[in-house]
Amino acid sequence: MEDLPLIELPTEQTERADAASNRRRILAAATQLFAERGPDCVSMQDVAKAAGVGMGTMYRRFGDRAGLTFALLGERHRELQEQLLRGAPPLGPGAPALERLHAFGRARIALLDDGEAAMLLTTAEAGGATLRGPDAAYRTHLAVLLRELAPAIDVEYAVNSLVMAFDARLHVHLRHERDWSLQRVQDGWCALAGAWAAAGAGR
């Protein structure tokens, strides 16, 4: 089973029980407020009030809204990684590689659709950090599956083409400017992934 290099924030490794409790409350409050209002309409003060913590706690723990968004996205991606490693098939182990490939693409795009794209754009506009850990993890996962399905193709190039389809701006453009359905976006990604698998399977 592949070891996916998902992002881990250093302070989470040694934080006290009270700090961990505050972090969970803050992230839960941010999740709810972002879902209700959209990330660009939620301030650090809004989240602090909903979580029942002081602004000092907010700024010490997350720094600014970009840091809060970064932490929230990290939690979501850790959950997806856990499903990839130990979840039920076809997302988790036990299903044929092509089924796992399609299940991963659909889950990753669903995560984008569930407010992640908007949060990433908000973070980028604020000059915040980007999520490199999940990107590396997903590249590893895709490479493992594609090497099993289509060893004759240029796996690195195929992985790059598939990961680029998870771009937040592209997702917002297709879903909200072009008014495409979520299923259409997911089906398109699966068709692209399937084409790569077919291209190298028979060589």
Give an account of the 3D structure.
The protein is an all-alpha fold. The protein has helices at 17-37, 44-51, 55-62, 65-86, 97-125, 132-149, 155-164, 168-177, 182-201. The chain folds into two domains: 15-63, Homeodomain-like (Arc Repressor Mutant, subunit A, Orthogonal Bundle), CATH 1.10.10.60; 72-201, Tetracycline Repressor, domain 2 (Orthogonal Bundle). The longest helix has 29 residues, at 97-125.
Keywords:
2 domains; 9 helices; 72% helix; Tetracycline Repressor, domain 2; 203 residues; Arc Repressor Mutant, subunit A; 0% strand; elongated; mainly alpha
Topology:
Layout: H1 17-37, H2 44-51, H3 55-62, H4 65-86, H5 97-125, H6 132-149, H7 155-164, H8 168-177, H9 182-201
Helix pairs in contact: 1-2, 4-5, 5-6, 5-8, 5-9, 6-7
In short:
The chain has 203 residues and is mainly alpha-helical.
Q: Distance N terminus to C terminus?
A: 26 Å
What number of structural domains do the residues give? 2
| Helix/sheet category | mainly alpha
Order of helices and strands: HHHHHHHHH
- Sum up the overall morphology in one term: elongated
CATH class of the largest domain: Mainly Alpha
Number of helices: 9
Q: Assign the CATH architecture of the largest domain.
A: Orthogonal Bundle
The CATH topology of the largest domain is given as Tetracycline Repressor, domain 2
Considering DSSP H and I runs of 4 or more, what fraction of the residues is helical? over 70%
